[in-house]
Amino acid sequence: MPEPQPQKAAALEVIAPSAEETDTAATLVRELLDLMKVDATVSTQLTEPDDLTGKQLAIIDIKGDDLSVLIGPRGETLDALQYVSRLMVGHRLQQRAHFVIDIEGYRERRQQALTRMAERMAEKTVKRGTPVTLEAMPAHERRIIHMALRESPEVTTESTGEGKRRRVRIYPK
């Protein structure tokens, strides 16, 4: 009987957003900023392909002086701006829109802060030997926590609760 041949890993197909979607999103965000009388520049870029899915996202980057009013407490205003923009672009294109709005690198700084917090809380969980529950946070922030700790040999994570009160709980293994 012949030996089974090792299978080659299938190369991920890179799936990028359409130029029409990216251009429409950037134009719409510029229009919204003008209507809000916010002086800022808007540019676009693509993320690196995701390791698991191969998908790329368009990032609509807003730069300017003192844009903290657009970020809001814990990024709530930024999340609302992104939500409304996605709805409007989706309506214009008659399809679901997938892009991220970032202001002065806020999303990356927030991701780094959440990753550091996840690591600190994982250490606390291991040290105490009891689960630790984090504050309520939106789905994309909970995902950052889960991804930061997914390969930890000492802890596991789980989302608990419902709606806006959903939180991540870190358990010792």
- Helix and strand composition category: alpha+beta
Mean pLDDT: 90
The biggest sheet, with number of strands, parallel, antiparallel or mixed sense and barrel status, is: 3 strands, mixed
Low-confidence regions: 4-9
Strand order of the largest sheet: 1-2-3
Strand content is 15-25%
The overall strand count is: 6
Number of helices: 5
**Rg value:** 20 Å
Distance between the termini: 43 Å
Sequence of secondary-structure elements: HEEHHEHEHEE
What is the overall shape? Answer: globular
Helix content: 40-55%
Plain-language structure description:
With 173 residues, the protein is of the alpha+beta class. Helices cover 42% and strands 21% of the residues. It has five helices and six strands; from the N terminus they run αββααβαβαββ.
Name a few traits of the molecule:
single chain, alpha+beta, 6 strands, globular
Give the gist of this structure.
The chain has 173 residues and is an alpha+beta fold. It has helices at 19-35, 68-71, 76-93, 106-128, 139-149, and strands at residues 40-46, 58-64, 99-103, 132-136, 155-160, 167-172.
Write the topology of this structure:
Elements lengths: L18 H17 L4 E7 L11 E7 L3 H4 L4 H18 L5 E5 L2 H23 L3 E5 L2 H11 L5 E6 L6 E6 L1
Helix pairs in contact: 1-3, 4-5
